Amino acid sequence: MDWKSKKIEAILEQALVEDKATSDVTTSITIDPSLRASATILAKQDCVVSGLGCIPRFLDIYARLDNRSSGRYEVISHPEMFDGVRVKKGQSIAVIRHNARVILSCERVILNLMQRMSGIATLTRQYVDAIHGTGTKILDTRKTVPGLRVLDKYAVSCGGGENHRLDLSDGILIKNNHISLGGGIEKVLARAHELRSGNQTIDIEVRTFDELRTALDHGAESFLFDNMSPADVKKAVKMVRERGGNIPTEASGGINLSNIRKYAETGVEYISVGALTHSPPAVDLSMKITAETY
Predict the structure, then answer these.
(1) Which pLDDT score, from 0 to 100, does residue 72 have?
(2) Which of 86, 97, 108, 137 is flagged as catalytic?
(3) Which residue in 4, 68, 175, 288 is the catalytic one?
(4) Catalytic: 226?
(5) Considering 86, 97, 137, 143, which one is annotated as catalytic?
(6) Which of 87, 189, 269, 292 has its CA at a distance of 20 to 30 angstroms from the CA of residue 133?
(7) Other C-beta atoms within 10 Å of 44: how many?
(8) pTM > 0.90: yes or no
(9) Which conformational region is residue 121 in: left (phi greater than 0), alpha (psi within -120 to 50 degrees), or beta?
């Protein structure tokens, strides 16, 4: 993750602007402007960490927006603490040493982002662990918070999942509405073969065995089995493999932690899970701030 990229900077800056961090009236009237403090970010539950890189970037962007010198800062963490690491309840994730006013004004945006990203990473790791040993890989989807997709998908990778399409320009995925509006599987596949750019793979969503047979007969190169039972996914995988070649298969829809291993044991290569980014529970993190004494 390039935390210094313009795209990431814009996201973080908007978070500070939204919270009016540089106009924190409570902090400005209660805290000595020269006071320095030490803030420890603590895990209040077992989790997988994601988003550590946002801490110094928030502080840098705050300094630019504030237009006032607030002194040097340090962000300290153990050498073995990095995005993707599992931590235990009560464990210190990072320590910030900085001007007390700045820490207080940035506290909520730092925690908000790290709680969401660590929540995604933690949930993803649970899915990855649930299918361990099957050879199937966990994929994310485009069901992300608008404006936060690059961070949401990075958090999935921190949890051991893989990123699917980043956006609509990133590969051909023909879904049910494309098929319905485009005149059927045969027609949309014919157009895809005629008009695709370069070596883009033609992926198609199918819901029945009849749709699968038609797509196989008309040149689909990758398959998404939508809302099929584990038994049907197993049969669909067999049908694809009987055609020969290295044709990727993916299952999606109605898959959760309680049934994902049954799907993985069908032999499907990928399972995509929208819940990773559309409804992850935030991880419980806290920031304990104390004044520094000299």
Answers:
(1) 85
(2) 108
(3) 175
(4) yes
(5) 143
(6) 87
(7) 13
(8) yes
(9) alpha
Model confidence at 294: pLDDT above 60: no
pLDDT at 70 over 70: no
Assess whether 6 carries a catalytic annotation: no
Query: What six digits make up the tokens of 44?
Result: 């209040």
What letter represents residue 245's amino acid?
A: G
Structural domains in the chain, sorted by start: 6-121+281-291 (3.90.1170.20), 128-278 (3.20.20.70)
State yes or no: is 196 an active-site residue. Answer: no
Average pLDDT over residues 135-139: 98
Is residue 282 very low, low, confident or very high in pLDDT (cuts 50, 70, 90)?
Answer: very high
Q: Which residues share a beta bridge with 52?
A: none
Q: Judge whether residue 222 has pLDDT over 80.
A: yes
Residue with tokens 């500070």, as numbered in its chain:
16
Average pLDDT value for residue range 41-62? 97
pLDDT confidence of 272, banded at 50, 70, 90?
very high
| pLDDT score for 77 | 87
| 137 given a catalytic annotation | no
Choose the catalytic residue: 83, 107, 203, 226: 226
Q: How far apart are the first and last CA of the chain?
A: 37
- Is 243 considered catalytic here? no
Express as a percent the part of the chain with pLDDT over 70.
99
All residues at 6 or more sequence positions from 60 whose CB lies less than 8 Å from its CB, including other chains = none
